[in-house]
Fold:
Amino acid sequence: MSKFGGFCMKRKITAMMALPVAIMGLTIMLIMHFLVREALADNPEQFDNIYDLIKTLVIVFIVVCTILAPIIANSIVKAIEAGTAAVKQVAAGQLTYEIDGKFLHRNDVIGDLCKAVDSMKNELRYIITDINTHTQTLLDSADTLDNNAQTTLSTVDGVERAVNDIAEGANSQARDAVKATENVNIMGDMLEATNSEIERLTYNTTIMKESSERATQSLAELKKINDQVMEAIEQISEQTNRTNESSQKIKGATDMISGIADETNLLSLNASIEAARAGEQGRGFAVVANEIQHLAEQTGATTDSIGLMISELIDDSENAVETMYMVKSIVEEQSRNVEEVQSIVEAVIDAVEASVQSISSIQEQSAQLNDAKDEIINVVESLSAIAEENAASTQETSAATAEVASSFGEVTEAADKLKTVADGIAETVGAFVIE
Structure:
């Protein structure tokens, strides 16, 4: 409120208080004049003395009331200005603003207004502090989710490269088998050794196939966990929406309290004016007083509604925290599955190395097999077919791995979006000063 506005309000209140007092004094003086004149009709001199005394007392009464009126009006204006300043500070986000204690201890409507504003400020500060805490938790969880997703994506990329190397090795194996078919000239005495090496190669190929199947199962499990992560993110979004709805309800209740306080103030002023005009015979004051009591009861009910809404907001925040714990558990399970995939890939690499060693041994023995080259050619053709099958299997595994990598890329994007939302919340509540 400006200084000019405060001055004008003080003058209005002073006028409202002084005018009824002056009218009352003049009325009393006239009544006493007629009463004394009738009582002392036979003694005019004594009547004049008593009448002068009455006039003097009435004038003194009016002067005293006129002097006290600006003082009382100034006190009322200062209290109103304090309440207005507090509301402006809260609206600007300054929740550290403190209202002077002398205004809070007033037992009139203005004191109730200051107490309501102070209570609203404290509740807002508690809510903003709670939102800041949970927003920081949300940011930390989003960072953890993003880091784990990046690590998993990097691991899946490594698996994909390893599978591509296996495919390239299988293709190279097929080419070497064709070349061996063309160059076999000596096969005789080493046929038995060649058959043994072929059996070892078949065994190693079986191990490689089993490892590939296990890798496929692990990738399917990773996809399932990814779906669970998405569900958890959706739950977080739902909890955030509910928190926003509760905040809107609190705002509505606060607006209602403000309206009731304004109406109560207006009714109090009307009651004072009516009582001053009518004196003891003023019956309108009782009606206004009853209306004030009704509004006070309505204000209490609204305050209870605000308490219930705040409880709902706290419950929603706790649900959001529980959801984040579930996300953490899912990510931990995801990490364990990644470790299992790494073990499987290592087993595949060992099997491939054993296959390469077996093939090298076959090539060394083939130089000495000349007499049985026709049979060896058939065996090498079989090896070529097996290599082609291995190449096809590794291509399928590579495609599945690429799909998993794409899914984790979506997880990373979702984590970034979650972090952006959390940053937005933090920026919004940062406009409030609570410390």
Q: What stands out?
A: The domain at 112-429 is CATH 1.20.1270 (Substrate Binding Domain Of Dnak; Chain:A; Domain 2). The CA atoms of residues 126 and 211 lie 56 Å apart.
